[in-house]
Design brief:
Length: about 230
C-alpha cells in the first residue's frame, strides 16, 4: 500500500469508527465493506468531507457470489459424461417466499477523487431480502442512474428511491436476470419473426443443452510441476 493510501485508510478508520470494514487486498488497493443501513450516509461523507472528496462515481456493478470459492474442477481423471455446469436449465424466478443467502448478492461502488487523485471501492451486500434491495445513490452521484438500472436488469437488484428503475439492456419481454449464476446459459425464451402472424413472437428457447467443457482431463508430463525446460535440440 502506498503512503498516501495508508493515510487515507487511517482517516477512514478514524472517521467511520468501525462502520467500514477493510477488505484485504494483494495489490494495495483500498476496498471497504459497508452495511446497507449506513450506505447513504457513508457515501455522502465520502463525497462532501474535505478529507475524502470522492466527487465521482466511476462505476457501479452487481456481483452474484453463488458458488464463490468452489472449485470448477474436482477431479484429474476422465469422465464419460462431461461437466455440464450452466448447461442445465433451472428455475430462474425464485420462490417469493424464499430468502437469499445474506452474502450472495452485492453491489460494488468504484469511487474517484479527482482533486486528491485517489480511488476507493465500497462493497455492500443486499442481505437476505427477496428481491434484493439497496438504497439508490442517484441523489449522491448522478452517474449512479444508469449503473443502477444495469444492476437491476442483469442481477435483479432493486434500488429504493431510484427515479426510473427500468430494464436497460434486455428486451421488454425478457424474463429473469441473465447475470445471476443460476440463470441458464441458453436462456428460457427466444424471439423470432413469424411470417404467418407477420410480427415478432416469443417462444420457449429451442437450443438444446449441451456439454460446454471438455470430457477428458489428461494427466501427462505437460502438467508436471517439476518439469524443466530441457536443452535446445538442433
Amino acid at each position: 500500500m502506498s503512503p498516501r493510501s495508508a493515510v487515507l485508510a487511517e482517516q477512514i478508520t478514524a472517521r467511520f469508527d468501525g462502520r467500514l470494514q477493510q477488505v484485504p487486498s494483494r495489490t494495495g488497493e483500498l476496498t471497504y465493506e459497508v452495511g446497507k443501513a449506513d450506505l447513504t450516509e457513508v457515501a455522502r461523507a465520502l463525497r462532501d468531507e474535505s478529507a475524502f472528496r470522492f466527487e465521482t462515481l466511476v462505476d457501479l456493478c452487481g456481483v452474484d457470489y453463488l458458488g464463490f470459492g468452489q472449485a470448477e474442477w474436482d477431479t484429474t481423471t476422465a469422465t464419460g459424461t462431461g461437466f455440464s455446469r450452466a448447461a442445465v436449465r433451472e428455475v430462474i424466478v425464485p420462490d417469493p417466499a424464499a430468502s437469499f443467502d445474506p452474502r450472495r448478492f452485492a453491489v460494488v461502488y468504484h469511487l474517484l477523487s479527482i482533486s486528491a487523485n485517489q480511488r476507493l471501492r465500497l462493497r455492500v451486500f443486499t442481505g437476505s431480502d427477496n428481491p434484493p434491495v439497496l438504497p439508490s445513490l442517484v441523489e449522491v452521484w448522478q452517474s449512479a442512474d444508469w449503473y443502477e438500472r444495469e444492476a437491476f436488469d442483469l442481477f435483479g437488484i432493486l434500488f429504493e428511491g431510484h427515479p426510473d428503475l427500468r430494464r436497460l439492456l434486455t428486451d421488454y419481454g425478457f424474463i429473469g436476470h441473465p447475470f445471476r449464476k443460476d440463470f441458464p446459459v441458453s436462456g428460457n425464451v427466444e424471439v423470432r419473426y413469424d411470417p404467418d402472424k407477420e410480427r415478432v413472437i416469443y417462444q420457449p428457447v429451442s437450443i438444446e443443452p449441451r456439454v460446454l467443457v471438455p470430457r477428458t482431463i489428461r494427466d501427462d508430463n505437460r502438467y508436471l510441476p517439476d518439469l524443466k525446460e530441457g536443452p535446445a535440440r538442433g
